[in-house]
Amino acid sequence: MTKPLQSPNPTQYLAFDFGLKRIGVAFGNSLTKTASGVSVVEAQNDEQRFDKIEKLIKEWQPEGLVVGVPRQADGADNELTARCERFARQLEGRFSLPCARVDERYTSAIMESCMGGKAARENKGRVDMGSACLILEQFFLEGR
């Protein structure tokens, strides 16, 4: 017996790879279960950061958001875990959209490796967008 689709329409998402200097952003949908990098948000303060994110939300019209939450190799919190959780709560509160969290261990390391190391160090924005793609694709793989 086949499993019925949860929704007749694909759900669109924006995913975020949060960083203190940059936030990588990717867009994808639940039909294709793929993600594409769309932007890197760079800002001097939270007000600028959320203004740029608001523009992306208006442009891409997601029905949900996904934030990568970093952890140590053993699953314990690291120095950015609480900041990413806070960022996810802020997104939910400011934009009234559901925001899922995904374990994003190693996404930046994977992207840097795929980009050949040196090239990645020279273009951190591409690493951040690529990491946001991996976060969203992990979300889809988890069947959420």
Q: What would you note in describing this structure?
A:
With about 140 residues, the protein is α/β, with parallel strands linked by helices. Helices cover about 40% and strands about 25% of the residues. It is globular, with a radius of gyration of 15 Å.
Radius of gyration: 15 Å
Order of helices and strands: EEEHEHEHHH
Shape: globular
- The averaged pLDDT comes out at 85
The number of helices is: 5
Strand order of the largest sheet: 3-2-1-4-5
Question: How is the secondary structure organized here?
Answer:
Layout: E1 12-17, E2 22-29, E3 34-42, H1 46-60, E4 64-69, H2 81-95, E5 99-103, H3 107-114, H4 118-122, H5 124-141
Helix pairs in contact: 3-5
Short description:
The protein has 144 residues and is of the alpha/beta class.
Please give a handful of descriptors for the protein shown.
single chain, alpha/beta, five-stranded mixed beta sheet, 5 helices, disordered N terminus
